[in-house]
Write a structure and sequence with these properties.
four-stranded antiparallel β-sheet; three-stranded antiparallel β-sheet; single chain; about 30% helix; 9 strands; alpha+beta; 4 helices
């Protein structure tokens, strides 16, 4: 009969085996990967389709230097086809500390991408997903991004039907 310690050890081994990942031909424990790289990979989601290379290209586009200035689409119709949402860290002004924030990248059928760090955009995107599903949205959903000032005098954004 197995002792309690043996059962616990067995469960721990099973859990570690279930969490292992194949990385470049090596088997590494997920906890080691997270210790070295952080858990950024787990803190993102998107609605991209295609093989691994196609998805990687889209993720690189959404997180790379060619993402457009969000102010360029304020008040204009935007054809929302895809999105990429991920966690980032922002420096607190004057405090030298970082805070976690959510960055939403909206992408149109021509691969134009625009990023927002806005709880308003994140909440509206969540409502779009709950209404239309994950997408990609074919045909695209025609939306308008609006900017407004909150009661506390903060600039905020919202995704509205066009």
């Amino acid at each position: 009969m197995e002792t309690l310690d043996e059962r616990i050890a067995s469960k721990q081994e099973s859990a570690l085996a279930a969490r292992s990942s194949d990385i470049a031909g090596q088997t590494m424990l997920q906890s080691v990967v997270e210790d070295v790289l952080g858990s950024l990979g787990a803190k993102a989601f998107h609605n991209f389709k295609g093989d691994a290379m196609a998805i990687w290209r889209q993720v690189s586009k959404a997180t790379g230097p060619t993402v457009g200035n969000a102010d360029d689409i304020i008040g204009k119709e935007f054809k929302l086809e895809r999105f990429y949402v991920h966690q980032i860290q922002l420096a607190q002004e004057g405090q030298g500390e970082y805070v976690d924030a959510v960055r939403c990248v909206l992408i149109d059928p021509s691969d134009n991408a625009f990023a927002f760090v806005s709880t308003g955009i994140a909440g509206d995107l969540a409502r779009i997903i709950s209404t239309f599903g994950m997408g990609p949205y074919l045909p695209p959903i025609i939306v308008k991004i609006v900017s407004f000032t909150t009661a506390k005098k903060r600039k905020s954004y919202s995704i509205q039907p066009a």
